[in-house]
Design goal:
This protein has helices at 19-27, 34-55, 59-73, 81-96, 101-130, 148-151, 157-167, 183-195, 207-212, 238-247, 279-282, 325-335; strands spanning 139-142, 172-176, 199-202, 218-221, 225-227, 232-235, 252-255, 261-262, 285-286, 289-290, 303-306, 313-316, 319-321. The chain is an alpha/beta fold. The chain has two domains: 19-124, Four Helix Bundle (Hemerythrin (Met), subunit A) (Up-down Bundle), CATH 1.20.120.420; 125-337, Rossmann fold (3-Layer(aba) Sandwich), CATH 3.40.50. The strands form three sheets. A seven-stranded mixed β-sheet has the order 3-2-1-4-7-12-13, with helices on both faces. A four-stranded mixed β-sheet has the order 8-5-6-11, with helices on one face. It has a two-stranded antiparallel ribbon with strand order 9-10. A hairpin with a 2-residue loop joins strand 12 and strand 13 (319-321). Helix 2 (34-55) runs antiparallel to helix 3 (59-73), helix 2 runs parallel beside helix 4 and helix 2 (34-55) packs antiparallel against helix 5 (101-130). The longest helix is centred in the middle third of the chain and has 30 residues, at 101-130. 47% of the residues are buried. The chain binds 5-S-methyl-1-O-phosphono-5-thio-D-ribulose. 5-S-methyl-1-O-phosphono-5-thio-D-ribulose binds next to helix 2, helix 6 and strand 6.
Length: 338
């Protein structure tokens, strides 16, 4: 996989040869973004099966090793539901299969590849559905990175941007840097530069000023998990952007595949929010020194909860959903046949 911790400075691919390596890569955010960690989790299960099939003398031994891999992979990160969704899909293949470990391993490899290509197809469909939401010369603000890096290809929020730009080359993008890990400045800006899509990078606290000046026409973000009522959990800072968008009368649009829906959650209140290491907040260096004392007390929730009432539309591969979201999201899930 492409090591996202090294971008934009270096393009480095790492090869992971065991499923615990995949767990570590997801935790360390070598790979990140909801659909992408789902794909990685599925690949991790397939890798585990390939190795367990070679070393297990019985189906029982194979199942025991797969049980360990599934249990650790599905919780490598807690917030994006795509990870447990994808790993559980592959676990279902194992449970339903009566064949040999070798046969199961082959089927899991095919299933993991199918999840990857399905996610990219979903992104392209999301981009297509979003086109009627934009007027000429749109200036789209996005937060975090919901691009090809975060999805396995094309992107959700950046898929929308890519489709809009293809239809109208006067589209421009405002990129929130996205403290503390800078997915906006490091990753989204890098992707947009690769595609030649014009963007302006801002620090997160500048969005209000630009909105008040009429310089943002739409906000488009991705999601890590969407509850049954349309509440959205996404990268920390998204909730603040949604409040700002409402204050300035700017549409706040969420782009996510149905694999990001969690209809078992009535609202976002029950969705777990990952708390990450304090040094991620203290770590930024400025003027040649750290921006905070090494012992500064820190809070570092990696995600926040945006209530459905602030969301203008949710776009899945099934179409554009508007409030009230409950029935429309349920139909999208059913039609996607998960
Ligand atoms: O902590 P990260 O970088 O994995 O968080 C990613 C996000 O919050 C993205 O916006 C979300 O996963 C959608 S990616 C299509």
């Amino acid at each position: 996989m492409l090591d996202q911790t090294r971008l934009p400075g270096e393009v480095v691919h790492v090869t992971l040869t065991t499923w615990p390596d995949v767990v570590d890569a997801i935790k360390a955010m070598v790979i990140r973004g909801a659909p992408a960690i789902g794909v990685a989790g599925a690949m991790g299960v397939a890798l585990a099966a390939h190795q367990a099939a070679a070393t297990s003398s019985t189906r029982q031994a194979f199942d025991a090793e797969m049980g360990r891999a599934v249990a650790e992979l599905r919780v490598a990160r807690p917030t994006a539901v795509n990870l447990e969704w994808a790993v559980d899909r592959l676990a279902g293949v194992i449970a339903d299969h009566e064949g040999t470990p070798q046969e199961i391993a082959a089927e899991l490899a095919a299933a993991a590849r199918a999840i990857h290509s399905d996610e990219v197809d979903r992104c392209v469909a999301i981009g297509h559905h979003s086109l009627p939401l934009f007027t000429r010369g749109a200036c789209i603000l996005t937060h975090c990175n919901a691009g090809a890096l975060a999805t396995g290809g094309y992107g959700t929020a950046l898929g929308v941007v890519r489709a809009a730009y293809e239809a109208d080359p006067s589209v421009t993008v405002i990129v929130d840097e996205t403290r503390p890990l800078l997915q906006g400045s490091r990753l989204t800006a890098w992707e947009l530069a690769q595609d030649g899509i014009p963007y302006t990078l801002i620090s997160d606290n500048m969005a209000a000023m630009l909105m008040s000046q009429g310089r943002v026409s739409h906000v488009v973000v991705g999601a890590d998990r969407i509850a049954a009522n349309g509440d959205v959990v996404n990268k920390i800072g998204t909730y603040g952007v949604a409040i700002l968008a409402r204050e300035h009368g700017i549409p706040f649009i969420v782009a996510a595949p149905t694999s990001t829906l969690d209809l078992t959650m009535p609202s976002a209140a029950e969705i777990p929010v990952e708390e990450r290491a304090a040094d991620e907040v203290r770590g930024l260096a400025l003027f040649g020194m750290p921006a905070a004392s090494p012992d500064a007390p820190v809070a570092n929730p990696a995600f926040d909860r945006t209530p459905a009432r602030l969301v203008t539309a949710i776009i899945t591969e099934q179409g554009v959903h508007r409030a009230p979201y409950e029935r429309s999201l349920r139909r999208a899930w059913d039609d996607a046949a998960h």
